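Title: Comparing notes on inverse folding

I've been comparing how different people in this forum approach sequence design from structure. To keep things fair, I'm posting one structure and asking everyone to reply with a full sequence. Here's the target:
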């Protein structure tokens, strides 16, 4: 990467896929569709049709037939579409290897190992991912029809997986917490950030061809027609053990009334979304709904974690100013989150597992899989020495497996809960390349 003038380039909204610069409507429904390419010419025909159906950021405010369609390709998918070897070699190693090959590094072992993943996730069958979103079921049906047009009558294109996703009725995760509250703002993106006011992050942290936080241009795959305005997507299906989480709170809270407090300490926010850093004693629903206040905090006044434990989920996923003594620029590790819920809600008060599959489709957008997604997963969430805590992992998504410890600082003595199980089990995942509209045209025109 070459150092250049740090003046921000203008973002090309008509060239960048909408899922990168835009947030979904509230409420929303959606479907993920995975495709396999069995014939090159049919793959080229599919690409041509994508140009008419994929929603750019510039079209997001007036979605195609009331819904949004976006697309990503695995490394194997790009190979099958005839992308030249020199171009394939210019992609990052992590993307070329694929998520399943990097499972051990990511902590996807034992129950979460690829041998237990849901077919076809993590296999060489997955070539293309279509993300379909809409504000209503009727509009989603229009998106599904658009997706059908992309591959219909092409015998060399097969639908190998479908998963319905959406927002839970109360807008919260399956564990009962308001979701999607914290997301960075992209410098130069004039589209309002719906989740709250945060510091701007340079566009090169999320898009190829732009200046990043280090003052250099993030180099993407070559040639420039393929890489510019593109990015990577880490997509993971995470089964959430909701009943186990509820039982753990019941067994380890001092009193029944303290279960919500213990859960809030583990997450770092109250169920409403109000951060412990601003509401350390009780939940504040008005604060949780205030997009101008709910992210306007740091940990400078709480270095020991008396208000928000150092090892809480949100503090580990985004340490803000917690790591100043470690000379770490946290902005170079940020992700754009486009995660969704899947599966039925476990009724309130139910403490036993009902056998239903429910959880999160984690979707993280970045320009460096190693420096952003994999670093956060391995060093911050699963790392055993985060901010000087020698043995603890993230209590919500960490690989605890019944041996985890979570420390709640208090006076006169700290409180520790032990034997944390793994509440999140990986059911599959893959790395995708989200190309620009220019890149899709370039692939169509390949000889």
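Reply #1:
Here's my take.
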């Amino acid at each position: 990467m070459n150092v250049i003038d740090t003046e921000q380039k203008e973002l090309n909204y008509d060239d960048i896929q909408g899922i990168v610069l835009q947030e979904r409507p509230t409420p929303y429904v959606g479907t993920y569709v995975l495709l396999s390419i069995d014939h090159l010419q049919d793959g080229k025909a599919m690409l041509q049709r994508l140009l008419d159906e994929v929603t750019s950021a510039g079209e997001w405010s007036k979605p195609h037939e009331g819904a949004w369609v976006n697309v990503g390709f695995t490394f194997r998918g790009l190979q099958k579409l005839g992308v030249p070897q020199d171009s394939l070699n210019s992609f990052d190693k992590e993307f070329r290897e694929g998520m399943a090959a990097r499972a051990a590094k990511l902590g996807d072992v034992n129950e979460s190992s690829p041998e237990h993943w849901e077919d076809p996730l993590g296999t060489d069958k997955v070539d293309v991912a279509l993300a379909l979103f809409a504000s209503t079921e009727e509009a989603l049906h229009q998106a599904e029809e658009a997706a059908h047009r992309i591959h219909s009558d092409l015998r060399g294109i097969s639908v190998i997986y479908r998963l319905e996703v959406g927002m839970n009725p109360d807008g919260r995760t399956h564990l009962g917490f308001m979701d999607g509250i914290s997301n960075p703002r992209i410098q130069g993106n004039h589209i309002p950030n719906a989740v709250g006011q945060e510091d701007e992050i340079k566009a090169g942290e999320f898009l190829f061809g732009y200046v990043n936080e280090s003052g250099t241009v993030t180099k993407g795959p070559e040639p420039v027609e393929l890489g510019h305005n593109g990015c990577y997507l880490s997509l993971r299906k995470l089964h959430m053990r909701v009943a186990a989480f509820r039982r753990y709170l019941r067994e380890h809270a001092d009193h029944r009334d303290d279960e919500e407090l213990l859960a809030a300490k583990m997450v770092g926010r109250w169920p409403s979304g109000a951060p412990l850093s601003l509401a350390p004693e009780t939940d504040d629903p008005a604060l949780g709904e205030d997009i101008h206040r709910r992210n306007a905090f740091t940990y400078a006044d709480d270095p020991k974690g008396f208000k928000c434990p150092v090892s809480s989920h949100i503090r580990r996923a985004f340490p803000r100013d917690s790591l100043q003594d470690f000379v770490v620029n946290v902005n170079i590790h940020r992700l754009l989150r486009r995660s969704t819920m899947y599966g039925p809600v476990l009724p309130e008060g139910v403490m036993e597992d009902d056998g239903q599959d429910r959880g999160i489709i984690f979707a993280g957008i970045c320009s460096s899989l190693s420096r952003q997604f994999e670093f956060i997963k391995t060093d911050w969430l699963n790392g055993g020495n985060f901010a000087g805590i020698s043995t603890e992992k993230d209590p919500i998504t960490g690989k605890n497996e019944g041996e985890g410890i979570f420390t709640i600082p208090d006076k006169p003595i700290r409180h520790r809960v032990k034997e944390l199980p793994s509440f999140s089990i990986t059911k599959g995942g893959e790395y995708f390349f989200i190309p620009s509209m220019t890149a899709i045209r370039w692939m169509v025109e390949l000889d």
